[in-house]
Amino acid sequence: MHRHATETLAQADALLFGRVIYQMMEEAWRPRAEAATMPAWTEPFAQTIDAAKKYVVSSTLDEVDWNAELLRGDLGEAVQRLKEEPGNGLLTGGVKLPMALAELGLIDEYEFVVHPRVVGHGPTLFAGLTKPLDLKLVSRLKYDSGAVAMRYEPRR
């Protein structure tokens, strides 16, 4: 899974995070002076996410670092401008920001990773979506753990 995530991150021009995911990922993956020991198999992912350009959508943060820039103003306009830049595109994750982007029709591809463990709590992805998303499966990847990564494109 980490290898797949690393490859996916490496293909994107930048990561688009909301405040919660940005702070969570920074806490987990930003290198620290005290150099915590992480398993060797996580190192490629850690290096890739550390080096990635990041855009953070937040109305509460005053500043960001970790190779990041705050996005201010109208979300749709700001993301559309980023999408129009040449390159391979943006990668996002989380719950609230992807929901907002889906509502605006700004997501070109979805990847859902289903893990073989049901916890019964936590945020629900796309809860409250105002219109259905009709998606077409474009690829599927099964892991030995039983997890499955599925990529979909919107039907237009």
Chart the SSEs and their pairings.
Elements: H1 2-11, E1 14-18, H2 19-29, H3 43-51, E2 54-57, E3 68-71, H4 75-84, E4 90-92, H5 96-103, E5 110-114, E6 135-142, E7 148-154
Concise account of the structure shown:
The protein contains five helices and seven strands, in the order αβααββαβαβββ.
Account of the 3D structure:
Helix 1 runs parallel beside helix 3. This protein is α/β, with parallel strands linked by helices. It has a four-stranded parallel sheet. It contains five helices and seven strands.
Write a concise keyword list for the protein shown above.
7 strands, 31% helix, globular
Work out the strand percent: 15-25%
Distance between the termini: 30 Å
Query: What is the string of SSEs from the N terminus onward?
Result: HEHHEEHEHEEE
Mean pLDDT: 92
Strand order of the largest sheet: 3-2-1-4
The CATH architecture would be: 3-Layer(aba) Sandwich
Helix percentage range:
25-40%
* CATH class category: Alpha Beta
Which regions have little confidence, pLDDT < 50, spanning 5+ residues?
none
CATH topology: Dihydrofolate Reductase, subunit A
* CA-based gyration radius: 16 Å
